[in-house]
Amino acid sequence: MRDIIMEVKFLDLKKQYAELKSEIDSSVQAVFAEADFIKGAEVKRFEAGFAAYCGASHCISCGNGTDALTAILKVHDLPRGSEVILPANTFIATAEAAVSNGLKPVFADIKEDFTILPESVESLINPNTSAIIAVHLYGHPADMDVLKKIAEKHDLKLFEDAAQAHGALYRGKKAGSLADGAGFSFYPGKVLGAAGDAGAILLNDEKLAEKARKFCNHGRSLKYFHEFAGINSRMDTLQAAVLNVKLRHLDEWVEARNRVAEMYIKRLSDVTEIVLPKFYPETLDAWHLFVIKTEKRDNLQEYLKNCGVETGIHYPLSLPEQPAFAGHSDYCGGYRAVKESKTLLSLPIGEHLGEKEVSFVAEKIKEFFVKSI
Ligand SMILES: Cc1ncc(COP(=O)(O)O)c(C=O)c1O
Question: What's the whole-model pTM score?
């Protein structure tokens, strides 16, 4: 054990709450005062505000990001048993949405920027393919123009898993407005996070939006009148009250994350043992995560922990390596996504960090590599 001279948290929601306390408390108290807990005014306000923020016609709030993705696939009525191509490195929810709709997830490889590799997508398309899900992983938008062309050429639906990309831009347009539908998660640790589980579906087609709204509310159009069997997945009014406050701060948080990313890149660019994420001219990253690659990942993580720096691994296993998808690893063995999963390390990023903390983390990373030569 070493003497810890500075603690750098991976995420600091206590600090965020302390800064927003008066806004959040009064918003939450108003919900209690009205006892307006389900489908309340704050929910409608959030749906309108988030749709406008993202430049989408319809926002349907729901219980979490997994349900949002499930609902998007559901309302598009994809043929049962058909294949949905998605990246091999993502959170399991992207694939679960396919499985729970009776669809088969098929894993494509990723590019150096961690998003789905269009060439790999094309190589997996066959007559049984019905859709592609692009994941804006770690807050970095996928190559949507190229994916759109592929989807059009093969008559496939293209969806966005934007669960990590609140506020990100692709060629000037917001993540969530770039394809046939998008799913967002507001899990507390996200760039725009609730005080519990919450999610949203963005759609531009009115009929599909209406269907998604019914699906998330027991398939009902009127009280106790159910057109079809749906699910119970509604955003609590309390969560919407919190999100309405936080949405006002989203742009400044994305800016702060970009500043932290820039500082890391500047301070670490001469460390040859790590591969840093990059800035790209066609995108504004949300920088949900700042993920570096290094062969010495586990030792570096341990070293940073002993120095007081919290880090994360996203994700320790690629999806084809998960027991849940046994068999898929046959065709994914040579994937970058599989090889690199052992090298990924997420450094702390967020508006809770300033120059002092970022410099400290960078200094400790450099120290580690000097010592480990
Ligand atoms: C890429 C991705 N997709 C989907 C989800 C699912 O969201 P939720 O946890 O709100 O169900 C998450 C959240 O962790 C995610 O990171």
Answer: 0.98
